[in-house]
Amino acid sequence: MSSLLYSSSQTADIYPVSELFLRHRLQVVEELWESVLRQECGQNMVDLLRQLRDLCSPEGQTTNDQASSAVKLIEQLNINEAIRAARAFALYFQLINIIEQEYEQRQQLSRFEAETEVIEPETRPNANYSSNQGEDDGPVTGGLAAELLTKNYAQKTQTKLKGTFAALFPHLFKLNVPPQQIQRLISQLDVRLVFTAHPTEIVRHTIRDKQRQVVQLLQKLDALENGLGSTGVGHSWEVADVREQLLEEIRLWWRTDELHQFKPTVLDEVDYALHYFQEVLFDGIPQLYKRFKYTLANTFPWLEPPSKNFCSFGSWVGSDRDGNPSVTPEITWRTACYQRKMVLGRYIESVKNLIELLSVSMHWSDVLPDLLESLELDQSQLSEVYDALALRYRQEPYRLKLAYVLKRLENTRDRNLALYNRETPKNQDSPLYLSDAEFLAELRLIERNLTETGLSCKALEDLICQVEIFGFNLTQLDIRQESSRHSDALNEILEYLQVLPQAYNELSEAQRVAWLTTELQTRRPLIPSELPFSEKTNDVIETFRIVRSLQQEFGVNICKTYIISMCRQVSDVLEVLLLAKEARLFDPAIAVGTIQVVPLFETVEDLQRSRSVMRELFELPLYRALLAGGYAAHKWEADAETEGHGDAGKDTETKGHGDTDNSFPASPCPSVSA
């Protein structure tokens, strides 16, 4: 969370970290907190909170006598006073957390600069950090919070500074780790971080914005006070002004509801999750790649860095339906469109910025033929852009090219909005990007032309890195469903079709496996196009069908992981494969598909049995063929991604009995999660 409150754009001026700085900053925040409470609740409330706080030890513990005294104080409060006291302490600890997070990030930044060198407290620069009054004659106490946050400070400075790339690669060099081994590991590096769905953790955007504003003001105060200390000036109206702004922001925070006054929808939850991408990850992950590449080159300049998308993201938000009836196939579709809307919006802003930056004139710089040819093609496809801007940009080829790129992005965004609303896109003949690969190719064309004429553009490099990492999908959506939902759905389907002599749920595990294995090898569809089943069964079937639609519109990578929660036995996996087959996500005849089934063994008993379950799965010829068939995945995925963009958003229903459709794309090997 700390990275959420500390924007990368505000870390340019890094000041040394000291325990005294922490104590001073805590004192400032506590004074402002008390000032706000004095204005809002009166001096009696401030005195009460001080009493309650002082009953705790620096370690946050209380004796029996102290606890008894605290209970007596609290019991004397009426309901309104108790609510105010609870809110006041909640605000207090949130402010203290902000200080702690900023302090930890200062330590991390110092650690990155110092690499593996340990700096003792006595030798740290700015050890005699002074307050804004210029006092440096002793430690400034920051109350209980200072004791809580700094008690381990001395111990931390004695340990070796680890945890950064700058420390890792020199350490590997000293250990004489073979460079070939390091290169192999780097080439295989694939980190996927998944956002899970937890609505109880929802914090209002309003509160997050106020937290961020407090951080920005504190950083501004740091810079001003640091300047005062270096110049010896004892007073500054700017410091007073920033303190006043902090006081105002905290007071507004006090008068703001912490929680929404309505029940958030699933799409609200999606919006909250994407907030982290907007504010942190979209800019932060490319910086992570740059740091990796830079520090690797410092120690092993002959090694190749990883691919830019070595760290990618997945999400359960809007796709995890286990126990959440609000997550419907339609919600999952809208979630994918919503994610694309966000990422396209960021790309549009970045391209607008590039248009301002790349003012290169043909009078003073060469332009390669491939860019000129591209401009001619763009003119024929986007004549309205040429008519509007050709005169203005007649000698500025990069700006003209980026104007065409911008228009295609805007057309792509407009089409995505129509798909979100399940409307027919307007102007379907308008040039747009059917995939992020097309957008990336145009950016690389510009980059190549700049490079070959002796120029570079960091903003363009960052945008290319973002496109390689996030594409047009932002994250991969993981589907999760409880195992019994699949067996119940098949039970109803088979009962309706009168396929089995008895109910599916009454079969033994051996009978289920035998029937599922046989059915998986048939080419005959099992589920009719029209769904005359219960709402729950229809939802299970439509979930697989919406995955097919998503893959056709967004590409296979948007949604190819299907997690079976409470997985207990082999039939749980085979049921999902059968339902995937019916949605044309898996073809047993060639043992490939576009869905990766992940059994999730959760109870102690299921975990203990998981080895035998997986062994039995591995012994099934069909399952072994599926694992071995992974080599064909790239070809089939490419076919699937180019198959249906023109028909995006249309229902892709499976055929009824007697109909066949043998066009199946592919998938990676299933894996097990325990």
Give the key terms.
58% helix, 24 helices, single chain, de novo design (two linked rop proteins), 3 domains, mainly alpha
- Low-pLDDT stretches: 1-17, 115-142, 148-161, 230-234, 631-674
Task: Give the number of domains.
Answer: 3
The shape, in one word, is globular
Content-based structural category: mainly alpha
Question: Roughly what percent helix?
Answer: 55-70%
How many DSSP H or I helices?
24
Mean pLDDT across the residues is 80
Rg on CA atoms, Å:
30 Å
Strand content: under 5%
Summarize the main sheet: 5 strands, parallel
Order of strands, widest sheet: 1-2-3-4-7
- Give the end-to-end Cα distance, rounded to a whole number of Å: 27 Å
How many strands?
7
Model description:
With 674 residues, the protein is mainly alpha-helical. It has helices at residues 19-41, 43-54, 64-75, 79-114, 143-150, 153-158, 165-174, 179-187, 205-231, 237-254, 266-299, 329-357, 369-381, 383-389, 397-420, 436-452, 458-470, 483-497, 509-520, 535-554, 570-582, 604-619, 621-628, 633-641, and strands at residues 191-195, 311-315, 476-482, 561-565, 586-587, 592-593, 596-599. It has three domains: 2-169 and 205-265, no CATH class; 332-470, Phosphoenolpyruvate/pyruvate domain (de novo design (two linked rop proteins)); 476-647, no CATH class. The protein contains 24 helices and seven strands. The strands form two sheets. A five-stranded parallel sheet has the order 1-2-3-4-7. A hairpin with a 4-residue loop joins strand 5 (586-587) and strand 6 (592-593). It starts with 18 loop residues before the first helix and ends in a 33-residue tail after the last helix. Residues 1-17, 115-142, 148-161, 230-234 and 631-674 have low confidence and may be disordered.
